[in-house]
């Protein structure tokens, strides 16, 4: 994954967001109970990214969002976002779109 890659990411429509206390949790809505292994708890930054992914976003757009929200350098934002997006892709809570 690379900041200049044309890939964009968006939420999987089969995922429901729930707030439990101060935590945001993603729950798959699938007929198969094995999907319960994919419940995903989000920290504050991941919740911000999840909200943005209501519409397709590129890595560069997400970096800009995190930098603006948390006043961090782009390299630091990218270093945090790449593993987050990779884990979200692996858990199938987001999808790559053209």
Describe this structure in words.
By secondary structure, the protein is an alpha+beta fold. It has one domain (11-93). Helices cover 39% and strands 26% of the residues. The chain has three helices and six strands. The protein has helices spanning 44-52, 59-70, 74-90, and strands at residues 8-11, 15-20, 23-28, 40-42, 57-58, 94-97. It has a three-stranded antiparallel sheet. Strands 2-3-4 form a three-stranded antiparallel sheet. Helix 2 packs across helix 3. It is globular. The mean pLDDT is 88.
Poorly predicted sequence stretches spanning 5 or more consecutive residues:
none
Count every beta strand, where a strand is a DSSP E run of 2 or more residues: 6
Helix content: 25-40%
Beginning-to-end CA distance, first to last residue: 15 Å
Specify the structural class: alpha+beta
The average pLDDT is 88
Rg result: 13 Å
Report the order of strands and helices: EEEEHEHHE
Query: Structurally, how many domains make up the residues?
Result: 1
How many helices in DSSP terms? 3
Q: What percent strand?
A: 25-35%
Give the biggest beta sheet: 3 strands, antiparallel
Strand order of the largest sheet: 5-1-6
Instruction: Tell me the overall shape.
Output: globular
Protein name: PqqD family protein
Pfam families: PqqD
């Amino acid at each position: 994954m690379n900041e200049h890659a044309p890939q964009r990411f968006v939420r999987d429509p089969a995922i429901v967001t729930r707030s439990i206390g101060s935590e945001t949790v993603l729950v798959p809505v699938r007929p198969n109970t094995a999907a319960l292994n994919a419940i995903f708890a989000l920290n504050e930054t991941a919740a911000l990214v999840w909200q943005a992914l209501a519409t397709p976003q590129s890595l560069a757009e997400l970096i800009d969002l995190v930098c603006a929200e948390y006043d961090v350098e782009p390299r630091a934002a990218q270093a945090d976002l790449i593993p987050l997006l990779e884990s979200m892709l692996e858990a199938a809570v987001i999808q790559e779109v053209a």
